[in-house]
């Protein structure tokens, strides 16, 4: 190619300084040893896939009953010592039993002297002859022929007696409680004494009431007067009630 002419007044660019080369930095003396230990302790299937294993031979295929447990081989006589015979008899052993009984004649005699079987009652309910036993069906009078039919069981009689005894004890307890809570009748002497005591009390309170001042200008005088009036009123009510009724009842608290 032809070189291009450089115009006048132009100059080449100044050369750029080269960057300093990067240093490797600090290198440990044990670098190679560390690499060797890392490669040594690395698992086989971690980075490179499963390990290569020899492929099984086609002749070593799974055979029938190859996984069943095998019995231990029989012990042979060792050092001239004979094994003791087993105490369990073999399957072909048949014990000899000698009996003098004649079972044929015995069974025949039992049949001849025994009671004959009673006929079983059946009930036929269809034209085709379908039948069923009459006794368990409920149509046969079975329970009314028993000796204890209609008789109360012992446990029912015992329970009724216990209930009757408990009812009597409860009634006796109620009557006792009513007697304790019953009202008492005052005798004529007690009624007279109570009436006399009430009248004496009324006279004392009335005397105190008559001695009050006419002017009740303080709160205390007003309260004292009201208290005496209430007592007089209650005593007059009690005296009138006792004089009106000749029979007075008092409840036992």
From TrEMBL:
Domain called Enkurin: residue spans: 158-250
Pfam families linked: Enkurin
Coiled-coil region(s): 160-192
Places the protein is found: Cell projection, Cilium; Cytoplasm, Cytoskeleton
Superkingdom, taxonomy of origin: Eukaryota
Source organism: Junco hyemalis (Dark-eyed junco)
Stored PROSITE patterns: ENKURIN
One function term, GO molecular function aspect: calmodulin binding
Chain segments carrying region Disordered: 1-25, 38-94
Keywords associated with the record: Cell projection, Coiled coil, Cytoplasm, Cytoskeleton
Protein name: Enkurin, TRPC channel interacting protein
Start-end of Basic and acidic residues biased regions: 62-82
Gene Ontology CC, one term: axonemal microtubule
